[in-house]
Design a protein that fits this description.
This protein is an alpha+beta fold. The protein has 4 helices and 23 strands. It has a 6-stranded antiparallel β-barrel with strand order 3-12-15-14-13-16. A 4-stranded antiparallel β-sheet has the order 4-11-9-6, with no helix packed on it. Helix 2 packs antiparallel against helix 3 and helix 2 packs antiparallel against helix 4.
């Protein structure tokens, strides 16, 4: 082979350019979405402990059980407390009976006592006056008058005493008040005994799921020692979204979530909270997504992948994001393949999907773009690599189709 032919071959090879992979601009339906990884979280974690030291008689739940508000979870030894409650109830019954006796028996009796004492006083007063007249006439001695005077004074004293007793037994009197106070004291003692008994039955304060069980029958429960832990409230997903997607977020935004442990069972969620500040260390915004109907397999602290679904565009010009340079800036551009040359083409971007962006201007359907993974620079002589999908006759898949 002559030197001239070698030079000619090299020149032809140079004209053809360096082979590069290319990505075509296609028309496809594009769903703008934001993808993030988060964790399943129950808004409230409730830890239950005993208030008194007592032996555990029974534990009615295990980890993973769904419980209702008021449901009995753990029962402690309560024989002594039940006996104390019965004693308090008996004392309450006695106090109420005494109050009833005071109102229906003692009060009427004291009224009648006043009537009798008043009659006795009137009789003694009449006797005293008659004796006084007869003594003045000389029929009775002074001793008879003194005896009548003592009888009158005694009757007057008995009348005053009867009136005081009757007044004390009236509905607003002292005895009635004391009877009412005794009933209140007995009732308070019953309530205290009931409260002590209630502390020996640990019930669920809310609807929830048992997360932790640290107790078994026969063990000793002590104040402050956690026996059970519950998760309560509606299920939610906590995630961090890159701050560059903040303008796309809106409350109520629908989302699809997938637990890493169950990748084939997606479930619906909804954006319910957007954090007010950006995390300086990670450049993310905290978001929360409510799960209205959580699947039964979900468990707290599960890792969950979330796709927040935004605007949907039908028949959009789309290009893989790998081919767009400086996509997060206003001056985005693409390195396009045109006439065996790498050409820098400014583009205007629209919606963004998962790994895909919408091209609003700068490129047309069928244009070829060189991804950032290729080592081509603007102005380089390049050609479409033989391994490109279209050159092999393979169908180029739609990037995002909804």
């Amino acid at each position: 082979m002559t030197l001239a032919s070698l030079l000619t071959g090299a020149l032809l090879l140079q004209q053809r350019g360096t082979p590069v992979q290319v990505l075509p601009v296609l028309r496809s339906n594009l769903l703008q979405s934001v993808v993030a990884t988060g964790r399943l979280n129950a808004p409230t974690r409730i830890e239950l402990a005993a208030e008194v030291t007592s032996t555990v008689l029974a534990v009615h739940v295990r980890e993973g059980d769904h419980v209702k508000s008021g449901q009995l979870l753990v029962r402690l030894s309560d024989a002594e407390a039940r006996a104390a409650l019965q004693q308090a109830k008996a004392a309450l019954g006695e106090a109420r009976n005494r109050a009833t006796q005071q109102a229906t028996v003692a009060a009427p009796v004291t009224v009648q006592t006043v009537v009798q004492a008043d009659a006795a006083w009137r009789n003694a007063d009449s006797e005293y006056r008659r004796s006084e007249a007869l003594v003045a006439q000389g029929f009775f001695s002074q001793q008879k008058l003194d005896e009548s005077r003592r009888a009158l004074d005694s009757a007057a004293s008995a009348l005053r005493s009867a009136r005081v007793q009757a007044e004390a037994n009236q509905p607003n009197g002292v005895e009635s008040g004391l009877a009412a106070v005794r009933v209140e004291q007995a009732l308070a003692a019953v309530q205290m005994a009931e409260a002590r008994l209630a502390r020996l039955a640990i019930n669920s304060p809310v609807d929830g799921v048992v997360l932790v069980r640290n107790v078994e029958p026969g063990t000793m429960a002590q104040p402050g020692r956690v026996l059970l832990a519950l998760s309560a409230g509606s299920t939610r997903i906590d995630a961090g979204i890159d701050e560059k997607h903040l303008q796309m977020l809106r409350l109520g935004m629908p989302a699809r979530a997938v637990a890493d442990a169950y990748p084939t069972q997606p479930f619906d969620a909804q954006l319910s909270y957007i954090g007010p500040a950006v995390d300086l260390q990670r450049g993310t915004v905290e978001v929360r997504l409510a799960v209205a109907q959580p699947p039964a397999f979900l468990k707290p602290d599960m890792t969950v992948s979330v796709e927040l679904l935004g605007a949907n565009r039908f028949g959009a010009l789309v290009l893989p994001a790998a081919a767009v340079r400086e996509a997060d800036r206003a001056s985005s551009w693409v390195l396009a393949l045109r006439d065996h040359r790498a050409v820098r083409v400014p583009v205007k971007l629209g919606l963004r999907g998962i790994g895909t962006v919408e091209i609003l201007s700068g490129l047309a359907e069928g244009d070829l773009a060189i991804p950032q993974t290729e080592k081509a620079l603007p102005g380089d002589n390049v050609r479409q690599a033989a391994s490109s999908l279209q050159e092999k006759g393979m169908e180029v898949p739609s990037f995002i189709s909804r």
